[in-house]
Amino acid sequence: MSIYTISFLVAKKPKTKQSDVMERGRTDLRSLFPFLLQANEDSQESLTSFPRRDTMGSFLPDSSSYELLAVIGRGLDNLMTVNLARYRPTGEHVAIRRIDLESCTNDMVTYLQGELHVSKLFHHPSILPYKSVFIAENELWVITPFMAYGSARDLICTHFTDGMSELTIAYILLGMLKALEYIHHMGYVHRSVKASHVLISADGQVCMSGLRSIFSLIRHGQRAKVVHDFPQYSVNVLPWLSPEVLQQNLQGYDSRSDIYSLGITACELANGHVPFKDMPATQMLLEKLNGTVPCLLDTTTIPPEELSMKPSRSGADSGICEGPGAGGVRHSNGEPSSSSGGHPYNRTFSPQFHAFVELCLQRDPEKRPSATSLVGHPFFKQIKRRPSEALPELLRPVSPITSFESSQPQDSPSGLASLESGLSHLEVDDWDF
């Protein structure tokens, strides 16, 4: 174990320094994000010729063009407010992240600069687009589409507490892999892959977010082979990080660390909880370094005597495999059993799904496949339709949050109350969008 690891694991977010705030007050806030000036000028020209483009600059960089409807979350030590809003020129819903720049530390500003620079470079259907970014008074406004199903983590917490069906997971993981394939091709490591950074739109589009921790392998025009940087503000993402990222040794890590995080996310989606989540940071580190491998919880990994007991997670909280089980009634494709006491894990995921997770969670990063290779894995052969056709059906009885609009006027008090009620279950603090 690296002598630096423990200090990294227990690191806290830096507090706002009074000197930083005073210095910020004397600075033209737009000078902190100089590329926004050019982006805003370009957006005025692009609106005429490409009014429906899903890239930065397709929405007006003017706060008066947006009607703020409801606060749906906060973050960044309460420096960020997330609003649901209506874009006045078209009437469509968007999410607006408003960040108080005058109260941000210099480190936070640098952090945001890196995120926005990357978002300007990335254009891919599986990565959440930033429709517009601009400064309104003392706030940085980031405009993104409103993802009406919320995050995959929201869906687990509210509707699929024992995990999703295998087919649903296949659609979500394929969308994540396509995003990671693009990110890695562009020379970046995501470093924050988890279910709360997977957003699903009303029409079933799967988008990756969470670009704040992303790191470029390109240095002085050359692509570096490994990274030695530990992701800032990473305390909440530790269970998903690979052993080599946590270890922080001279060997470093590369894009294959994201593949390990994808495997942890697959377990999160299937089991309804995150492996290693309840462990102290040092114990989690030791477990990962010693090669402890999380698994999918089903009839092949849980002993039959546990499956016959009352439903309880006491033996499965860690999501760690304890050896194959034998016998028992098996249910294909991860569908929960409605008989045999109704144990939520009395089900059987396909061998292809188990094999996929095992590949992702190899202790040795050299043995993990690339995102490009995993897109062709046999696990995804069960996908027969486009996500936009399949996911809304697979997510039933969940409906997108905008479904209230057909029966309630949006601007009426009862309509807004219905909207806020629908939004109340979302953990938008963790969306990082």
Automatic annotation (TrEMBL):
Record flagged with keyword Cytoplasm: yes
Oligomer status and interactors: Component of a trimeric complex composed of STK11/LKB1, STRAD (STRADA or STRADB) and CAB39/MO25 (CAB39/MO25alpha or CAB39L/MO25beta): the complex tethers STK11/LKB1 in the cytoplasm and stimulates its catalytic activity.
Function text: Pseudokinase which, in complex with CAB39/MO25 (CAB39/MO25alpha or CAB39L/MO25beta), binds to and activates STK11/LKB1. Adopts a closed conformation typical of active protein kinases and binds STK11/LKB1 as a pseudosubstrate, promoting conformational change of STK11/LKB1 in an active conformation.
PANTHER family in UniProt: SERINE/THREONINE-PROTEIN KINASE FRAY2, STE20-RELATED KINASE ADAPTER PROTEIN ALPHA
InterPro entries the record matches: Kinase-like_dom_sf, Prot_kinase_dom, STRAD_A/B-like
Broad class of where this protein is predominantly found: cytoplasm
UniProt keyword annotations, A-Z: Cell cycle, Cytoplasm, Nucleus, Phosphoprotein
Taxonomic source organism: Oreochromis niloticus (Nile tilapia)
Domain Protein kinase, chain residue ranges per copy: 66-380
Gene that produces this protein: STRADA
GO CC terms in record: cytoplasm; nucleus; serine/threonine protein kinase complex
Subcellular location as annotated: Cytoplasm; Nucleus
Domain of life: Eukaryota
GO biological process, one term: protein export from nucleus
Family of the protein in this entry: Belongs to the protein kinase superfamily. STE Ser/Thr protein kinase family. STE20 subfamily.
Entry GO MF terms: ATP binding; protein kinase activity; protein serine/threonine kinase activator activity
Name of the protein in its database record: STE20-related kinase adapter protein alpha
Bias (Polar residues) ranges: 334-345, 400-415
Classification via PROSITE patterns: PROTEIN_KINASE_DOM
Pfam families reported in the protein's UniProt record: Pkinase
